[in-house]
Amino acid sequence: MSIHLLGIRHHGPGSCRNVLEYLQELKPDLILLEGPAEAETLLPCALSEQMEPPVALLAYQPDQPQNAVFYPFAEFSPEWQTICYAMRNEVPLRFFDLPLTHSMALNQKTAEKEKDETPQDEPEGQKTAQEVIAETETNIQEAEISAKEQETASETEEETTDIYKDPFDYLAEAAGYTDGECWWETTIEHRKDSADVFLAVQEAVTALREELPKQTSPRDLLREAWMRKMIRAAQKENFKRIAVVCGAWHVPALENMPKVKEDNELLKGLAKVKVECTWIPWTYDRLSFRSGYGAGIESPGWYHYLWHHPEDDGTLWISQAASLFRKKNMDISVAHVIETVRLAQVTAALRNLPAPSLAEFNEAITTVMGFGDDILLQIIKEELIISDRLGRVPDNVPKVPLLVDVEKTQKRLRVPFTAEIKELTLDLRKPNDLERSIFFHRLHLLEIDWAIPGSSDGKGTFKEKWTLYHKPEQIISIIEKAIWGNTLEEATQKYLLKQTGEIRHIPELTHLLDRVIPANLPDLVDAMTVQLDRLSAASTDIIEMMEAVPDLVSIVRYGNVRNLDFSKVGNMLHAMIARILAGGVLVCINVDEEAAADILNKLVSTDYAVSTLNDPELNTMWLEFIRQVRTSVNVHPLLSGYATRLLNDKGDISSEEVQNTLSYYSSVGNAPADMAYWFEGFLRSSGAILLLDDNLWNLVNNWVCGQDKETFMELLPILKRTFSEFTPPERRKLGEKAKASGAGGIQTQTVTVSAHNEAEAAKVIPLIRQLLGIETK
To answer: Where is this region: Disordered (predicted)?
Structure first.
C-alpha cells in the first residue's frame, strides 16, 4: 500500500496540470480530495454536458440558509480536474475534509459570539443600483486583501505587530522574489518539468511549519485531525495506491501522523447541524472570495489562458489584448504586438524567470502600447485578466422549488443570470416587458438585489429602467426566502403579508403598497388596503397623514393608468385630506424652525401630489387648507410664506393681497427672523418661476425697489440667504433681468390677454399627449 500526498494551490493551472499528469501515471485505486463529504453525491454531475465551470458547491443550513459556504471550482482548479479524472475513470473518490455538519456548527457558534459582541446597526434603506454595485466591488477588494492575509491564522513569533504574513513570503525572500505569491507562480505554476514537484513542495512546507508553528489556526488543526482519520480508515480497506490531493499547507500534517488517541481527543464532542448541498454557477470575478477553499486569485482570466495555452510564448495573450484595444478605437498595429512580446520575454530573462508572467506582460503593454501610461491595464483587466465568464450547472441538480421557479421564469422571459452588469429599459405596453417588470418587482420586494430599479427617462408611466447584476450570494437569498412559498408569486405574497401585519404607521404602509402594486399581487393589495383602512381610521396624527398623501395619490394614479380598481384607496385619500383640513392648521401653529421645515417639506410634496392627480374635489379641499395656513394667527412664517406663494400661483389671491402681506412681514415691528422665514417660504424653489412669471417678478421687484435705503440694508442679508438657494444659472438670469429692469432697457409687462384660436389649439392636444406618454381615454 502506498499513499501519495499531492500538495496544491487551490486555483492554479500549473498545480492542476501537475496533479492530472501524476494521476494519469499513478492510476490510483482511491482518491482522497480536500472537500466536504456531504457533497459526494453531487460529483457525477461534473461529467454532465450542461456543466460548465466556473461552478461552486453551495452548502447551507436548511433552517438558517444564511449560514452557508461556497467551494468554487474553475476549469484550471486541481480539485475540478481530479473530480473529472475520477468520474471518467471510475476511480472511487472521497471528500475527506472535516464534514460541514461540524464545520458549519463552528461557523454558527462564531457568528453568534460576534453578534453578541457587536453593537446592532440601524437598518439600511433601499439601495440604488450604483450603491449596490459599488458595495459589491468594495467587498471584492476587501476579499482580495484578506485572501492573502488570512492564509495564516496567527502571528509569527518573530513579528511584534498585528500584521499577518504569508508563510510563503519567507521562501520568496530567501529566493529573491517579491512575495510568496510570485514565488509559487514562478516556481510551481510555470514549472515545465513536474517530476518530484510534490516532494519539493512537501519539503518546503515542512520546513515552514517547523519554523512557524503558530501559523496554523485551531480550525486547521481540527481539519487535519479529521483528514488523518479518513486516511487511516482508507488504509484499513486495503487500497494499493491512495492519492491524497489537498492544500500544500496540510501535507506535513498528513505525512507525520500523531497517535490515534491524540486526534480522537481533538475531535471529541463536535457539534452538528443539518446541511444540504447543491451546485450553483460561479463567476471568475468571484474567485477572489475566500470561502470553502482558502485563497482567492486576482487574475482568473489569465489563469484560464495559461491552462488552455501552456505552450504559447505570449503572442496569443498580447494579440487578444491588442484586439480589445482596437475595439476601443485605439491604433494598435502588428508591430506593437511583436515589440510587446519581445519586451516581456527580455524582462523575464533579465529577472531570471523561465517565462514572462502577467506582471511582465502588463509592464510591456504599458511601455509599448501605452507609452508609459498604465491606463490600458484598466481596459484589459475586466475582460481579459479577470474575465466575465459565468458557469452553468445541470438542470437536475438539487434545488429548492423557489429557485426552480425563478430560473424557469428567467428562461421564459429571456433574462438569465449574466456575469456583466446589464441595463434594461422596459416598455410596459409590450407584454414581455410587462412580465419582466412584474418579475423584477417581485424579486425586489423579496429583497433579492439582482434586479435594481432605476429612474427612467421621460415622464411616461409605461417606462421602467432596471440594472441587472448577478452575484452568487443572491442564490442564498432565494434559498432563504424559500420558506415563504414554492413559487415567486406565493413567496412574495406571504412574505409581505407578514410585514403588513407588523406595520403600525400609515406612511410606512402606503410606501410599501406603492411598491407592491407594480408586482401584480391583487390578493396582497386587498389585504394591505384593509390594513390601511384600519390604520387610517384609528390614526390622529396629521403629519403622518400628510406624509402618506403622495403615496396614496401615486397608487390612485397608477390604478387609473393601468385600469385597476383603487376606489377604496381613493375614498381613503379624500377622507385624509378632509381630516387634514379639519386639524392641519393646529400642527402649523407655535412650532419651532425644525418642525416648520419638516412640515414645509410635507406641504410641498402633498401639494405636488394633489395637483398631479387634478381631482376637482380634492383641489378644492386642499386649497381651503392652504388658505387657513396663510390667514391663521401664530402660524410659523415659513409656512405662511409658502402658503401665500401657492395661493398666488393658483390665482386665488390678488397681487394687492400679496403686496399687503409682503409689507406686513417686512414692517419694522416684525422680527428679522420672521422676515427671513417668510421670504424663504414665499420664494421656495421659485427661481424658474420668477424668470417666467412676470406677475410674480413685478410683485417682488417692485416691493424691493420700493424700500428705502435703511430698510433695504436690513433686508439684504435675508434676501441673500433666500436667493442663495437658487441654482447659479437661475441667479445669473435673475440678475440680468433685474439689471435690465432697473436700467429701463427691458420693462416686464404683465400679460393679461392671450389671443389664440381654441379650435386650432385643440387639434394638437392628442399629439402632445402621445409625445408625453399620457394616455387619452
So the answer is: 110-129
